[in-house]
Amino acid sequence: MQKLIRRVFTKSPLGANNDGPPDLDEMFKDLKNKVDNLFTTNPKNINGSGGNQKPTNINDGPGNIKILPIFIVVILIWMATGFYIVDQGSRGVVLRFGENTEVTQPGPRWHIPYPIETAEIVNQEQVRTIEVGYRSGGGGTSQELRESLMLTGDENIIDLQFAVQYNLKSVQDFIFNNRAADSSVRGASETAIREIVGKSKMDFVLYEGREEIAVKTKELMQDILDLYKTGINITSVTMQNAQPPEQVQASFDDAVKAKQDLERQKNEGQAYANDIVPKATGTASRLIAEADGYKVSVENESLGNASRFSQILAEYLRAPEVTKNRLFLEAQEQIMSSVSKVIVDQKGSNSLIYLPLDKLINKSSSSLNNNQLDKSQASSGSVRDVVNSITDRSRGTFRARDRDVR
Amino acid sequence: MKKLSSILFIVIPIIVILSLSTFTVDQREHALVFRLGEIVSVKDKPGLYFKVPLVDNVRFFDKRILTYNSTQPDRFITSEKKNVLVDSYIKWRIIDPAKYYVSVNGDEQQAERRLTQTVNDGLRAEFGKRTIQEVVSGQRSEIMGILQKRADRDSRQIGIEILDVRLRRVDLPKEVSESVYQRMVAERKSVANQLRSQGFAESEKIRAEAEKQRDIIITNAYKDAQIIKGKGDAIAAKVYAEAFSKNKEFYDFYRSLEAYKKSFNGKDDILVLDPDSDFFKYLRSPNKK
Questions:
Q1: Pick from B47, B189, B270: CB nearest A360
Q2: Residue B240 belongs to a domain
Q3: CB-nearest partner of A56 from B6, B169, B239
Q4: Taking the complete model, does pTM exceed 0.90, yes or no?
Q5: Which ipTM was obtained for this model?
Q6: For chain B, which terminal residue's Cβ has fewer other Cβ atoms within 10 angstroms, N or C?
Q7: A179 with B29: CB under 8 angstroms?
Q8: Considering only alpha carbons, which residue of chain A is nearest residue B249?
């Protein structure tokens, strides 16, 4: 490599040799001489034995002057290859003959060029992400069933998808301790999540324990990666999805629905209770109020009736006969004036008379007239009956009762 | 010009000789120096080393932790004679490059084959002693610990240290998975049924409780109402008794009249009368009989 560079540069400056300032030429000449002396100590002391070198020094004066700048330029270029820039968030790891000597911070840096030192730039702070159980990209996500399906402690299978984010806490560890340290993260994440899920019950993983699973997985992953001294720092483990496998999804949904049904039924029951209990309270209040009203009204009635009776009694005692008759007639009057009447003369006749009472009732309710039947029509009959009510008909006969209004 | 070529003539051979007679050992590598096929030295420390050109030969081996991922899951049988598919990875490191070179010829794949055999033997033994339940949850880390120790002991003979053996996946074969799914479905069904019945039960309980309360409230109120009414009736009876007992005979008469008035008070009532009755006595003649 260096030989090549030297050849390239030895040719190009040849044409421009006279353009160089004489001062510099002079200076280089001095230097050149010194270098020549270094290289050609032998030829100076023992003339002729140096062979080629000595004669060239003498004959090609201008040629001598040209070699030194070329040499220096080559050295400078070689030195320049030692510059490198460490980006923000990255670290430069410098190796001298394969041994790590320093870790450089961001900024322009220089190391002794190859082959003595080499530098590797590693991004330390960049957050890297791996996806387990799915792959996103290309606008959608695709599932990786082999990764996402796992056994729980109660021997069920669940479908878990999560993402792991990490950066580096030690660049040296990251570079020197593991081959393909990055790929350790996936292995560690899979073994960790399965260990954690394997110790948990399915319902816990699916519902209340999702966060806890993520936290525990993160801790376990970190432990595993620390064991390998990868220098990797897990920043987060985020559950993307935790669900039962597709095959059993429907029945899980149904179970969730059943839970809601339970709540709904409870609520309906409660609604019913909230409906009838207050109503019952209302009914109760009504009963009490009615009873109160009844009590007062009965009392008042009794007091009123008693008082009325007492007053009439006082008058009655003063003139018993007249008062009694008067009361009797007044009552008769009141009754007779309001009711329908049938007057039957039954003396001297034993045969039954026909009284179409139901018709009479209908008639009486429709027309006010025609209440009195002719005496002659009801010519015979020995029954002395007062029909109080229609219900008496059920007895089948009008005989046998004396209920005189007297 | 000749000067230049003469310098090149000197410098180039020097560089060539230097590059042939030195070698760098990286921090990440072991180096084995062979002299005509015989291992003469092991370079563990990083740095610049010299060798005899053409005679000495150097081979480098990775010093870092290497990972072996099993290419496909292997089938193992648990103590309850169930098959499980196990995927594992091994973290290993070359600690003795000389031994390593001698035993596996420095070939990583060959080394990995040996490691797999050892680990699989261990897995077979450990799984055969345990149930799926234990393998999956309870004793997972224990198994991994045993496997690591066992494999480590074995592999040290070939210059390898086993840092870790981890079960990545422990899965059920497809046909077993199907039956697991069926069981899960059945379980969910029973849970769903239970929840629904429970819902019905709780709803009924709430309703019955409410109805009970309703009945209690209403009957209590009825009881109180009857007590109140009874009190009223009692007072009324007392008042009547006091008033009416003043003249029993007149009371009978008076009360009867009241009752008649109340009983016959509409057109719907029909009285069938005998003209002989007292009421009509003056209808027949002005003089009383």
A1: B270
A2: no
A3: B6
A4: no
A5: 0.73
A6: C
A7: no
A8: A313
